[in-house]
Amino acid sequence: MxxxxxxxxxxxxxxxxxxxxxxxxxxxRLGIKTIAGEDVVVKPKPIxxxxxxxxxxxxxxxxxxxxxxxxxxxxxxxxYWKVGLILLxxxxxxTYFYGLIESKLPK
Amino acid sequence: MKEPLAWYIAGPLIGLMVPLLLLLRGKQxxxxxxxxxxxxxxxxxxxxxxxxxxxxxxxxxxxxxxxxSGILASNFSIPVVYKPIIPSSGWQEISIxxxxxxxxxxxxxxxxxxxxxxxxxxxxxxxxxxxxxxxFSVASxxxxxxxxxxxxxxxxxxxxxxx
Lengths: 107, 163
Prior knowledge:
heterodimer; A: 4 helices; B: 0% strand
């Protein structure tokens, strides 16, 4: 993906974002409620510049080294379970390390 | 099926998960919090994992669905081939099945960075790139750019030396 030699992943990402964006606008304009009859509440995540940038770069490194982001880890557990479980173990370890030191990290 | 699904079908299908989840569960699309949920089940004495894990339960269900999708895909013989480009191959694409245990250390390291980075950035490609960017959220746009910066660094400065 990061060699930009095929459009596939970018087409996938952009069309997913586009579809999601259009659906959010439609839901808002038409006032569509949830199946339980409640208002749909959509909130952007809080801006945490240092966390977004540092965490984002770390994530990107992991993404390119492993070839998987968070959801594909689970898919690979189903597709190639030996590798999937290693990825899952890594993701859980990384999450745990974060939890250990999160209060000391710049946000 | 021998080829990945066309992007203009798979992409919108993924995007439709956003309204589906909102309308059926009132929840925003995301997956990286599932890792926090899973660890919070274990007896860990870390404040970060003592939280109202029910708010992320939908992500664990999503995760189970993802695992199931992988199992179904493998039964329909969809080959997943990673085609890295490395300097020693003259920058030509080489086709290797790298999903083998001999690359286990790389996958472990990559996984750790993904787990750590997604929690630190407060989201991954699902929560930030798709859910966040579709709302034009600043935090998510910044995170998405950071993801790609990290991805490019890894691709050009790390992967050539470990694959």
